[in-house]
Amino acid sequence: MLRPTRWCDGHLDLAYLALHGHDLLADAPDPALRCVSLPALVRGRVTTVLGTIFTERSPEGAGTPTGYDALDPDSAFAAGVRQLEWYEAMERAGHLRIVRTATDLDTSAPLRVVLLMEGADPIRSPEDVAWWHARGVRVVGLTWALGSRHAGGNAAHGGLTALGRETVAALDGLGMLHDASHLADAALDDLLATSPRAVVASHSNCRALVDDRQRHLRDDQIAAIAARGGVVGLNLYGSFLAHGREATLHDALAHLERVASIAGRHQCCLGSDLDGGFTPMQVPAGVRAPDQFDALDAVLAAAGWTDGERENFAWGAWDRTLRTTCLA
Predict the structure, then answer these.
(1) Do strands 46-54 and 177-179 pair parallel, antiparallel, or not at all (unpaired)?
(2) Measured distance CA(29)–CA(22) in Å, rounded
(3) Rounded Cα–Cα distance for residues 6 and 63 (Å)
(4) Are 252 and 234 in contact (CB under 8 A)?
(5) Could you give the CA distance from residue 175 to residue 67 in angstroms, rounded to a whole number?
(6) pLDDT tens-place string over residues 135-163
(7) How does pLDDT run across 211-235, given as a tens digit for each residue?
(8) Is residue 68 within 8 Å of 75, Cβ to Cβ?
(9) pLDDT at 328 over 80
(10) What's this model's pTM, rounded to 2 decimal places?
(11) Residue in 326, 317, 320 with CA at minimum distance from that of residue 132
(12) 3-state SS string over 94-135?
């Protein structure tokens, strides 16, 4: 069995981890508590990731490196900039390459990072969009779970706000890619009605297989994303794979097979979210670190996925989507 030549992970909170004190240049001291590091990504042949600029909306979070006060747009902007500057410093040191154009995907950098803003409150106004684009952001999710000034979130339901609609127009004007993960149902409906451009779900699973929370995608939402040429990234958090019990690799396969039954296998990809608020012990055994992603490939092979379909899942779907949507 041929293993994939490389991997692309569509969702890793690298800057968040670093700003909260984790040394990503070294393996985690306790792999049961944290697994993501640059050495682990290299060992796993993970050559490209969507690295987030993730900001937390709450008065309590305002005192943290990645948090902000929801009443103060400037504090959200500052929290986002701190993470952006971490990626830029890592790029200057030669540890990664920020992907700004399709050509950057073909570089020999140890790690290629497409910047994904998870929660758009660092965009204080539509005029800010051009500034963030110039600094390298290419993918934007309008909110995290708790909602934003732009959109309702999966734990704070509602549609796009007036500001959100203006922000969507500004994102579209610069050819940026929309991320549907964490959008409330009403907000995703509004986004699809407002923007004609491609939409991805960087790290979302199937609502039909887990529970009725809006954190997961309905079948019709998967179909709508696929119809625009978008992809759905498999989230490895166990509670998002199986309800009320420990998740397995076969649960991960079940989500992929359901997405494939709706959208086709070519629209399936990985958005692991490893270390994104949960420990490796909350991930299915066998795939608890970036250097274990080949276990996913083995499950797909056993289920009859061809070499080409598995290569597409490992990196090709993300590569194709990024090149055709948001990279000049």
Answers:
(1) unpaired
(2) 10
(3) 38
(4) yes
(5) 28
(6) 999 999 999 999 999 999 999 999 999 99
(7) 999 999 999 999 999 999 999 999 9
(8) yes
(9) no
(10) 0.97
(11) 326
(12) CCCEECCCHHHHHCCCCCEEEEEEECCCCCCCCCHHHHHHHC
Which tokens sit at 36?
A: 């993501």
Q: At what angle do helices 249-263 and 294-302 cross, to 10 degrees?
A: 60
Picking from 288, 283, 179, the residue whose alpha carbon sits closest to that of residue 232 is 179
Residue type, 73: P
165 phi, psi to nearest 5 deg? -65, -40
Unique residue bearing structure tokens 């270390």: 275
Mean pLDDT for the stretch of residues 268-287: 98
Query: What's the rounded Cα separation, in Å, for the pair 160 and 167?
Result: 10
- Which residues is 53 bridged to in the sheet? 117
Q: Give exposure, 206-242, as e/b (b: 16+ Cβ within 10 Å).
A: bbebbeeebbbbeeebbebbbeeebbbbbbbbbbbbb
How many residues make up the chain in this entry? Answer: 328
pLDDT reported for residue 1: 64
pLDDT tens for 51-101 read 999 999 877 777 899 999 888 999 999 999 999 999 999 999 999 999 999
Among 271, 262, 256, 273, CA closest to 309: 256
Please give the domain boundaries of the chain with CATH numbers for all domains.
Answer: 7-325 (3.20.20.140)
3-class SS of residue 299: helix
- Reduced to 3 states (helix: H, G, I; strand: E, B; else coil), residue 12 is strand
